[in-house]
Design a protein that fits this description.
The protein is α+β, with helices and mostly antiparallel strands and 303 residues long. It has six helices and 15 strands. The strands form three sheets. Strands 5, 6, 7, 8, 9, 12, 13, 14 and 15 form a nine-stranded mixed beta sheet that branches.
Amino acid sequence: METLTLRPTELDAGKRVDAWLPSQAEGLTRSAAQRLLEEGRVTLNGKPLAKNYKLTGGETLAVSLPVPEPLDALPQDIPLDVVFEDADVIVVNKPKGLVVHPAPGHPDGTLVNALLCHCGGSLSGVGGALRPGIVHRIDRDTSGLIIAAKNDFAHQALAAQLQDHSLARTYECIAAGGFREDRGTVDAPIGRHPADRKKMAVLPTGRPAVTHWEVLARFPGFTHLRCRLETGRTHQIRVHLAYLGRPILGDPVYGKPAPGLQGQCLHAAGLRFVHPRTGKTVELSCPLPEEFQAQLQRLARRL
């Protein structure tokens, strides 16, 4: 059982707890929040709260989330753009809109379902029944390279490279705003947003997060950037650029939607890792999606 500790702020004062809870936990609906309250899983000072309890702001709530029943992801015949594959690893150019693994609201139709079909069930079990083979994730609305392991040996080796940063991931994006410098680094810790549990934010209490960026091209009001992750926090590039006041173009969460653009201009363009079996460095890249290229062309016409 997982227990969340939530602290409403003064801005939350007067809100009903059953209406406030869904904004604090990803995938939690109001009906699910009401069930938690009915089952006595939401407490204040050890006492269960009623659904109509109104927050005062400043109190500390404990929410006990039940352990979800394990489900097995099933193979589905979903086309994959395979960039690299051998007996140990597979690297795919993930399209925008494809969820990486099953989760609340996305029980199937994910990259994992596609990999299970493509690989004939030959994926590592380290990630569990819902995340077989998954070494790292990229957001649903981010396109580009993602690596998966076909066996536990490869998975453990790649996971170690994530930890020591030898597995290098490079992204390209369009930021809404200008940069005076040609390159720089954002070193700012990231944690769960205190007021919106579905978002991340730069927080003093967050986990260390480092993003290196460099300018590829400048346009009026926008900048084409290459970003290299030193760490891999949830939404890291999106949060760091928003923290600089230059959110990614089309980001509906940390910026704003862009007319004529489906989602955000963020693409995992490069991947470098040491092959777990051969010890040789593998360096891969994939082109920008057509929509991303079209957006760059539109910006170039403004010059």
